[in-house]
Amino acid sequence: MGKDDVSTKKRRKLNTTSSENTKQSPTDIYKRVIEFEETEAQLRSAEKDSALFKKICHDVRQLFADIAELKAKGTDEAKEKITAKRIEASLHLVALKKLNRLEKVRTRAGRDALHKEKQRVDSTHLLLQNLLYEADHLNKEVTKCLQFKSKDEEIELISMEEFYKDAPIEISRPEITKTDEHQLQLARLEWELRQRRELAGACSELVASKERVAAAIAAARSRLDALAPHLKDVLKATKPLQECLALRLDEKRDETRAATLLSPPLFLLYANANAYSDALGSKNVSVGISGDEDEARRLDQLSNVESELVVSNDSDSDQENNDEDQRDSKKKRHHRSSKISKEEKAEAKKKEVLKKHPLNVQVTITNSDGTALNLIFSYMIHLKIVVVKFTMNFPKPITGVSAADVLNGDCVLNELYVGDTGNDSPHPATAYLLKAAGISENFPHFISEVGKPYIWAQRMCGLDFMAVSVDTQKCNKNFLPCQSLSVASVENFIFTLKRRLKARIDLMKELQDLECGKVLPAKGLLCPVRLSGSLTQWQTVSWNEYSHALSTSFVISEGLVTPDNMLYRAIITRQSAKLVAMVAVSSDYPKQAPIFSLTLHWNGTHHAGTSDDIRDIERVINTNWQNTEKRLCTLSTQMMKLLTCLDVLLETMGSSEFPPDKVMLQSIRGRNRMKPYKYLKQGTGIFVQN
Amino acid sequence: MLDKMLYNTILSQTYSPCGKYLVAGNIYGQLAVFDLVNIFNPVVEQITSDFNKPKHIHLLESESQICSLVTTDKFLIAGTVNEISGWDWKAILSSKLTKPSWTIKIQPQSLIEKCDINCLWYKKDEGKLYAGCGDNKIYAYNLEDGSLVSTYEGHSDFVHCLHSNGQQLISAGEDGLVLLWDLRVKKSYNKIEPHTNSKIARPDIGKWVGAAALGDDWIVCGGGPRLSLWHLRSLDAVTVFDIPDHGIHVSFFQDDCVFAGGAAKHLYQLSYSGDVRVELPVSATTVYSAVYRTSPHKVLAIAGSSPEIDICTSFNYRDQVLHFR
């Protein structure tokens, strides 16, 4: 019964509420119902509803069970009860429906609340993000500010001590600045500014004064220029006077002007040789400059420009070559219309490399008898060496073939100093330079064309390639000719050459005599009375002929005779005996005595390799010179001795063909059966062994 | 002006008593001392370019040519011009030559004329020195006191060579004679004249006899005439050697062979029957001296008109060349 109570109450309650609602707004009843239910759902607790729901469900189930039981009875009473119970169950179902609706409303309200809450969280989060970003940005701004650099930091300021010392008190204001760093900085900057202003003022003042001075200089220069024509007029006026007094002032002036255009090595040579010419008199040594002056001037200017260019890059001759190439190619571009063949190009290149400085120095050395040697020194611009050409002048013609050869310029200058044949360039870089220019021939190939590069010529011009080769890198670029070397060499050369010339003229005279078959002894030499042998032939021989003679193998193998010597063959005959003497005269004659190699044709062929007698004679002629004879040991003296020795040898042979004619103490002496080749002036003169 | 040493002529050589040194004398009065030990067994590490040059070159005071050299146990004896000098071997081996220990002077007939001591022979058992001289005589000196013991006269021109086998002495001279001497008698007891034998004579070279040697039964001699072998007792020319020379200056017996040299390109070793056994090429134009020694090295040194001395250890070929310059 209890159940029923509850359900009725409920129903009532429900009914009342619904009736109220309908009364208030009958038009929008549905809305009101919803609103009412919503509020009701709010007010009621969900747990209680849930318990109520469970209780109703239980009641319904109980009713159903009762109905089922009553049905089973099948009585009318039962039927009535069933109906009552049916009604009761239906009411319960209505209550269930109501609860269900309430629940639904409640769920929706919960969902709405959740949604609302979510949205609120979202917006709050967004706000937080914005704030963070802003904070970050502000931070950045702060650091930027902190890092800001002021322009004044770059300005170099004077030090603090100096500032306080120098700056006036109104700027330094020590009472503030000592404590406030910012003020200090400002003060220092102010002081700096003031100082700079002062300096700028001073600078502009100086510039102004400089301009004034420049103007003054220009004015002075223009005055000087105006002076030149006047001076020229004066000079012109003096000319008649000079001619009248036979002064060579003008010529000398011209030459000095030309001298300034000479290449440095030749200038040195010119200056030194000129000095000696003054000292010794122009009769002995004369110096001149020849060549194209204008060309030299052009070259001088060109080289000035070039040197300015070259200074920047550390170039050597290689670079120069490249420059030349470029210049060449430029030139060729200009003349492209006239096609240049390859050979012509090579020829031009060769010419360029072998180019000489347009000015050369002429030195003429004259001997007392008028024989003059004229030397032309030229400087090869690219090979950087000095080459010499020469001509001889004779006061009177020379007779005799071999005699003339002796005074041939080549021969006179050969080995003027030991080993200096002038047959190859003394500059170690020459071969390289030629190769770099694409020339396959080596330098000796061009010597006949350009002249001989004697070492003495280089030294006279102050070029010392020994030093260069030792220290190539330093000097290669532009080594300056050494003055002291040139001074010493010029003096030495002039005297050496004069000595050589004199010796050669003497030799020439001797050879002239020998070629005529005359053997004249030098004065003061001990000489036996009669000589029976006679010189029948004297002629020049080639190295080939000389080296093929039987007798010469010894002196050649000992290196005493080289192809550089002057070689002769003398034939001496006496009756059936014929003595062939191969004579090698060194370039240094008479400092070095001629070397004789003998072959005797009599009773077989004898020479030093087979006969001791011939060897003894060679010893006498080539080595046995007593001190007194040394200065007289000329070619003729040796020939004289040879004739004597031959006589002695033949006369001691014991042959009836050669009757003893000379006084000999012992014709043969010693185990080596030595013949008496030595002449003693005792009585009529006797011959003894050494 | 050439160096006179290029035309050096070595006239005489000898070995030191120990055999370790070779001494050579030349016409310029220089004595060259060669250290043979160093030459034969050079220390490879210390070898220098001048190892075959003399250890010392001594110049005699007189600077006259050294014609002959002979060795005794104590002295080196050198025959120069007009004098014979003896040096202690120690003095020779030191770097500077002192004055000779003793000197024997030979006075020539005239002041200008000079007397070469062409040949020296030392007779050990008697202590006597025999000198064949340029004044045609042979002198015998007692080395104890340097006194002249005897003079042997017989040659009419200067004496080229002396040799002895003990009792007898043989001498060869420029006059073309080969004389045999009994040492006790002042006159020669026998003589050979090679130039009178038509098979032997070579008139174009001369009649002089440059070398003669005495064996037990044989004599070998030569010079201007050909090299020839003579029987000692019968004095017959047994063999005439056919060698291409222009004068013999050296000949001696050794190991049943005849060694001969002179103005020829070779030094010859010949059998008694005349066959050429060995031809040794020589540097000298004319060989004036060939000396051999068997102990401590077997060595033959050949010198003459050349600055070079040829050394053979086998007697068969030229081993080394020494330079006297």
Mean pLDDT of chain B: 89
- What kind of sheet is the major sheet of chain A? 5 strands, antiparallel
Shape of chain A: elongated
Looking at the structure, what is the overall shape of chain B?
globular
According to DSSP, the number of beta strands of chain B is 28
CATH homologous superfamily caption of the domain at 160-281 in chain B: YVTN repeat-like/Quinoprotein amine dehydrogenase
The end-to-end distance of chain A, rounded to whole angstroms, is: 189 Å
Q: What's the multimeric state?
A: heterodimer
Uncertain residue segments of chain A: 1-22, 310-337, 467-477
Rg of chain B, alpha carbons: 19 Å
Q: Distance between the terminal alpha carbons of chain B, to the nearest Å?
A: 16 Å
Task: Please provide the count of β strands of chain A.
Answer: 11
Proportion of residues in β-strands of chain A: 5-15%
Query: Helicity range of the residues of chain A?
Result: 55-70%
Helix segment count of chain B? Answer: 2
- The strands making up the biggest β-sheet of chain B line up spatially as 1-2-3-4
Per the CATH scheme, the topology name of the domain at 160-281 in chain B is: Methylamine Dehydrogenase, Chain H
Helix/strand/pairing category of chain A: alpha+beta
Give the C-alpha Rg of chain A: 66 Å
In terms of DSSP E residues, the strand content of chain B is over 45%
